[in-house]
Design a protein that fits this description.
Chain B: Keywords: Proteasome. Chain B: This is Proteasome subunit beta type-7-B. The complex is a heterodimer of chains A (242) and B (262). By secondary structure, chain A is of the alpha+beta class. Chain A is 32% helix and 27% strand. In chain A, a hairpin with a 3-residue loop joins strand 2 and strand 3. In chain A, helix 4 runs antiparallel to helix 5. Helices cover 29% and strands 27% of the residues of chain B. With 262 residues, chain B is α+β, with helices and mostly antiparallel strands. The chains are: A alpha+beta (242), B alpha+beta (262). Chains A and B meet through helix 4, helix 5 and helix 6 of A and helix 3, strand 8, helix 4 and helix 5 of B.
Chain lengths: 242, 262
Amino acid sequence: MESIQAKQGLVGPNDPIQRTQLPYVTGTSVVALKYKDGILMAADMGGSYGSTIRYKSVERIKPIGKHSLLGASGEISDFQELLRNLDELILYDNMWDDGNSLGPKELHSYLTRVMYNRRNKFDPLWNSLVLGGVKNGQKYLGMVSMIGVNFEDSHVATGFGNHLARPILRDEWHENLSYEDGVKLLEKCMRVLLYRDRSAVNKLQIAKITEEGTTISQPYALKTFWGFTAFQNPTAGAEGSW
Amino acid sequence: MSNSAIDVPSRGGFSFDLCRRNDMLAKKGVNLPSFRKTGTTIVGLIFQDGVILGADTRATEGPIVCDKNCEKIHYMAPNIYCCGAGTAADTEAVTDMVSSQLQLHRYHTGRESRVVTALTLLKKHLFNYQGYVQAALVLGGVDCTGPHLHTIYPHGSTDTLPFATMGSGSLAAMAMFESKYKEGLTKDEGIQLVVDAICSGIFNDLGSGSNVDVCVITKGHKEYLRNHLLPNPRTFVNAKGYSFPKKTALSCINREFRNLNF
């Protein structure tokens, strides 16, 4: 018992065991899809503290090793903890120096085990993770939720993205999207999320991973349209109503 | 002055007396019987000549589909239609009631009904019942002041919008609208967008399904396209049909006719 408590860090021998029960600083949805050359992933840069948008430059997509990208929504501190774990994993893998490296499938499996085992101890990492990558020409895109549900698909989304972005992706995604079409489709999804998700911020990054490597774009903003005539004068024809 | 309590006439509106009893029962584990909800996707949009309303046709009772092809677009007036989501009885009753009130008003004034009239009547009724009448409505129509589209929430608040969705499939349908809607759509473009939004609800939301109903309202004219699209046909139907041997029809033991003398 004592050694487990000591591993939690900064916990005295007689303190009660600490668990993540509520998320504090959270990121909203991540959307990702497979395209012709690899994977495209998009996430905005907001970190909300309850109903305040507290941080506006949180990078929620990170490259892992040579072959993968990890995007996370949910508790940011748990995401940072995961990144530390994955760093260690990649380091040990590199130390073998055997020409082989962990690919996206292996990382997805590792993350599933970590998430599931944490939830079994009633101490979950409060995240929904999206893992995408390309290794030896094989594209891979998968998702792990905070309770350990994992699956692989051609397009995934977390959080609100499930309700707002996946219907669009199910309708308009097809095999062999070009890079421009993939980005346009992702931007369409992110725009709908920007309009309809209260914790979204208009500052997003799109990350791309192909056999050649990873690029994460600079943060940029989407154009929005508010000029509908009904918005200009909603009570036309009924003065005094709303 | 008698000793008995003075009889105060009832003041109308909802009587909240039994709510405390219901709460107490719920705490003891006795739950209300489940309602027939229309767990739904309903949409409306304004196009260049008027309003188009759309709805799916599935009615659910908890996890079971109780009606595969119900009608969720209700008639309010010759130029006004209303889609309803939430408890089916509530949406039916409230739209029927306001439809009758509008008819009486038309007789009284001799004029075509206005959408804001229907809106105010519905809003007043729903607010009066403090959200207990669980009807979420998309009201659309064209009157002398132009095309109008409103959403009405169970507690009585309303919105005036160029495009609107309600029900459990509203997010899936709204994703379609937000990405594809623009001003000045033609009738065919509008119908296609409404169909896309309802199909998005049908295929991505578990509470919506079956077919697509569409209603197009323009100045002086309306088109009620019941089952405009049937994207869920029955896949396996026995081509030979089902034959029942004659003997199974009426296997009665004894037949006797008697006159009943009253």
